[in-house]
Amino acid sequence: MSDVAIRTEGLRKRYQLGARASAFRYGALRDTLSDLLAAPFRRAAGREQSANGRAPHIWALDGVTLEVRKGEVLGVIGRNGSGKSTLLKILSRITRPTEGWADLYGRVGSLLEVGTGFHPELTGRENIFLNGAILGMRRAEILRKFDDIVDFSGVSKFIDTPVRHYSSGMYVRLAFAVAAHLEPEVLLVDEVLAVGDAAFQRQCLGKMQDVSQSGRTILFVSHNMPAVTRLCSRAVLLTDGRISEDGPADTVVSRYLSAELGTAAVREWADQASAPGNEAVRLKSVRVIDADGRPVDSIDVRRAVGVEIVFDVTAQKYQFVPGFTLANDEGQPIFNAIDTAPAWREARPPGQYTTIGWIPGNLLNEGRVVVSVALGTFVAGGRSIRQAHALDVVSFQVVDPGEGGTARGDYPGHWPAPVRPLLQWTTVRR
User: Fold this and answer.
1) FRET label pair with 390: which of 25, 162, 275, 419, CA 20 to 30 Å apart?
2) Which candidate, 95, 75, 82, places its Cα nearest to that of 188?
3) Residues 11, 102 contacting (CB under 8 angstroms)
4) What pairs with residue 370 in β-bridges?
């Protein structure tokens, strides 16, 4: 038990559809009149639901059992509405579970959404001390970290201004700075990279890497898959309130993206009659492989990766030049490649052929790569005819482990563009 930071058992959270806030609240006269006018319609809707036997609720979490070790960085991914934020709100003690329980060991810091835990009428300075006190920090401890928090947030000019005048970017800058610098044993972060400019996002990534290397526990919710694979050693995938995948971050992210894109690292056609091609050639399989010839869903950015195309030639009728196109998961082309060997310029005799195009390490950027393959015939006029073609047939995840030896160097932030080759540099001082 001593090495466990977070433990949950059978967490379930039910939300009432159409539920309203408690009656014990202050409201304006117009709110009261609006409620009175709407009440008959709400009662009618409730009778209709009862008559139809429909339960007016939804399970945001449905039996989540999870254990996180001290010093572990866990990524929580999934589609919108899968239960990610609900899980973090329960762990942060913002809401109570309907069933099950959760234990956290150590001081907890959380950044769940812009302005959580801030009082709008208090200044930035006062909110730093307020949040520190909520986290259980002594005043002397907050004072020792105060200058670092303000410097990191970049809001020093407005530190004595009430935060209700802050922009959303300023809000999240200060909130993240407080949560990260007050040294909680467990840090819960929900989509912090969705707000703020590129420079701030780089700061956040760098700070979270520092926090993780100091042995503290992080739960990181994000739709930024490269950030998840770079920061997290492990990830869980939530689907409809349940954990559907739990394992190494790159593997879980790869499976999640494969399901979203409808592609995996291997595609085989058992029925040759329906395989892409024609009466002279048919595709048999396409695989993404590593240097040992094994299929891989994800690959280290520093390692070579191969696209293997297996096809059957049934008639010595055409030339079949193999090639493939790479694109990212937004459909942006990365590059096209064909085999330029002279042998492919002649009609090949019948048989089964296996060709592999190798993509060198330190060429692709991190992220999801989708592969389309084709067998083509060159004709007069600089044109080509596709004899067999499979669009978006396989895909794989490129992962940067953050260990150095890449074009990124020690830069922690987002690296734009689909490729990032590691170049040779020469410098002369005169």
Assistant:
1) 419
2) 75
3) yes
4) 327, 395
Exposure b/e, 47-72, CB count within 10 A at least 16 = b = eeeeeeeeeeeebbbbebebebebbb
3-state secondary structure of 402: coil
How many CB atoms neighbour CB 311 within 10 A? Answer: 27
Are the CB atoms for 267 and 390 separated by under 8 Å?
yes
Distances in whole angstroms, Cα of residue 142 to Cα of each of 78, 106, 159: 35, 18, 15
Concatenated DSSP letters of 58-101: EEEEEEEEEEEETT-EEEEE-STTSSHHHHHHHHTTSS--SEEE
CB 152 within 8 A of CB 177: yes
Residue with tokens 């990279």: 193
> Which residue pairs from 203-211 have beta carbons closer than 8 angstroms and sit at least 24 positions apart in sequence?
203/152, 204/176, 205/230, 205/231, 205/412, 205/413, 205/414, 206/412, 206/413, 207/152, 207/176, 207/180, 208/73, 208/180, 209/402, 209/412, 211/180, 211/187
Q: How are beta strands 242-248 and 108-111 bridged, if at all? A: unpaired
> In this structure, which amino acid lies at residue 147?
D
> pLDDT tens for residues 253-277?
878 877 776 678 999 998 888 899 9
In terms of DSSP H, where are the helices of 182-217? 198-213
Give yes or no for a contact between 376 and 386, defined as CB atoms under 8 angstroms apart. yes
